[in-house]
Design a protein that fits this description.
10 helices, Beta-Lactamase, about 450 residues, 3 domains, rod-shaped, alpha+beta, single chain, Heat Shock Protein 90
Length: about 450
Amino acid sequence: MATEAPRPSWSLRRRLLAAIVAATTVLWLASLGTVTLIAWQETEEVFDDALEESGYMLMAATTDWAERGLLAQQGPRDAREHKVDMQYQVVVDGRVIQRTGGAPARPFMAGFDDDDGFADAEVDGDAWRVFVVRDARRGVEVQVGQKQSKRFDILEELAEHLWLPVLGILVLLALVCWLLTGRVLQPLGRTASAIAAKTPQDLALVPIDGQPRELLPIVQALNGVLGRLDTALQAERRFTADAAHELRTPLAGLHMHVQLLQRQHPDLAGPFRKLRDDIGRVTALVDSLLTLARMDPLSREQLARQGVALVPLLEQLQATHAPIAAQRGITLTMRCTLDVVDANPQMLEIALRNLVDNALRYCPDGSRVEVEAVRVGGWARIAVRDNGPGVDAAAMDRLTERFFRVLGQGQGGSGLGLSIVRRIADLHGATLAFGGGLDGRGLGVTLEFPEQPLEMGL
């Protein structure tokens, strides 16, 4: 069955911004259309009023055509462009006897029946809006017209002047929405940071005070999961600690009984020796489990630290492991240029003892093991290196996994030593790294502790 490809993540902030901008744009377009329609209607009324007023004024001003000699006059065409650009005609008996330069030579409207009124006309392919005033007694008509295109030109000019400010307002609106949504969504970032900071040693509930109402169900559900997980981990740790503690007493008793049987039956010394070695490995495993059980609940803030003098500690380690090293012909050396390290004394001793134990255990006879403590920048570096067979890259990435052991080494062990060292490093805020050993071969394990005081030479 084919696995479903994971769905890509998406941004709630971007979706919210897109929704706001889209809704605003639609509403803006709707409002713009409404404003344009209202403006068009108002413009029509204003222009119609202007046509009407002009018609009445012209009729009132033209009383005696013959005496003023207006029959032969033709209004000159005005070369300037006017936004309103109204043209008029004086019509007698269906003939245009006087007109402005932009008016056609024939009447806008022929056969207009009413005394006055508006009409839409088409002359020479142009659409006109016309107001007609008639004087039936004298047989004179005044027709004032305006091209419909002129009215549209005004609206187009209005739109040309509006689009750039409106676009700027939309960009400003998008920027304001982006900033506001970022501010509104800050609780999501704070809650995500609080959740990301959780570790198996810190499963405290996420505070719900000050959380937005929409986020409360998620936080409460997460707190339920954290509570159940913490209960399960505490039960597991109690079981591990109790089981390891209860096993120590019978194992010690079993070891004593084997020693007694070995003295009583010297002919079975070989099998009894192997049995004692197996009991020793089980006892070491129980001790490691107890150590992890004690360290797992601790946090970095709870760890008691002090200045640990390295020279006496390394001398003690060398004295403890010297018999084993001498028995196998392994050269164990200590080189220290550090005075003190700010650490927990017991845990630092456990970590270094595990590292030296591992080096001696997995190195062949006649190898070299070196412990070095130096200052590098603002870090105190303690390294344990050997020239043994080393570890391949694939296995090196798993060395700190609990119960992991490198196959083919021919040595016993619980697979918990480096896990304990890793936990101790985490509690101290130190770094644990693996690399090359001595003479271009073997394994090197480095612990680096931050912010150390100045060293004094050994």
